[in-house]
Design brief:
Number of domains: 1
Structural class: alpha/beta
CATH class: Alpha Beta
Helix content: 40-55%
Oligomer: single chain
Distance between the termini: 22 Å
Strand order of the largest sheet: 5-4-3-2-1-9
Order of helices and strands: HEHEHEHEHEEHEHEHEHH
Strand content: 15-25%
CATH architecture: Alpha-Beta Barrel
Number of strands: 9
Largest sheet: 6 strands, parallel
Length: 217
């Protein structure tokens, strides 16, 4: 699948626009990192959010950055300036946070790394906007109000674009992607733990292909 080239440091908007889904990936084994990344890229998904939830996460980011040039590896669950710096040093080209603080925003700006900050309220959206962020992660999307909340936000925040994450599945992704203020969604269904454990990379490529074919507004 032909993909357009991206700058070494893509913007948050470019990260969100690249495909319909950003996979939220929890890796427990560094040996899975490179084959998983290759399987996702083969299915048309190259924006890969490796969450900093496991001790091997940074090593996995580094391995993908070095060995899978067609992937654009990012770090998720970034909760501090130190997390952002460690992720950037490992090779992350974007970071995703579950919430937003000015220290994280400032660190990412100084590092030159795109940030998709997490928001769940109007006040958090306004704070992120004040700091120049208008491509945001709505998290946790389904528990925090789902598609109805995004519809309500479209009026006062019609210049903001969202990546809803949290409770998004293959069965409800299309509902979110049809909304005018949603650019992509984040989800973990592309990388099932049992498929990684079994080394069933063909299944992951199939899931990625299905996700990359999802229609968007």
């Amino acid at each position: 699948m032909a993909m357009t080239s991206l700058p070494q440091r893509p913007s948050a908007q470019q990260v969100m626009q690249d495909a319909a889904v950003i996979p939220v990936i929890v890796l427990q084994d560094t040996a899975h990192a490179v084959p998983l990344a290759r399987a996702l890229v083969a299915g048309g998904i190259r924006m890969l959010e490796i969450t900093l939830r496991t001790p091997v996460a940074l090593a996995c980011i580094e391995a993908i950055a070095k060995e899978v040039p067609d992937a654009v590896v990012g770090a998720g669950t970034v909760r501090s300036a130190a997390d952002a710096q460690a992720a950037a040093m490992a090779g992350a080209r974007f970071v995703v946070s579950p919430g937003y603080t000015r220290s994280v925003g400032k660190a990412c700006h100084e590092l030159g790394v795109a940030l998709l900050p997490g928001v769940a309220t109007g006040s958090e959206i306004m704070m992120a906007q004040e700091d120049g962020y208008t491509a945001l992660k709505f998290f946790p999307a389904v528990p925090a109000g789902g598609a109805a909340m995004l519809k309500a936000w479209h009026g006062p925040f019609n210049d903001v674009r969202f990546c809803p994450t949290g409770g998004i599945t293959a069965s409800n992704a299309a509902e979110f992607l049809a909304l005018p203020n949603v650019t992509c969604v984040g989800g973990s269904w592309l990388t099932p733990a049992d498929a990684m454990t079994a080394g069933d990379w063909k299944r992951i490529t199939r899931l990625a292909s299905e996700a990359s074919a999802l229609p968007r507004n």
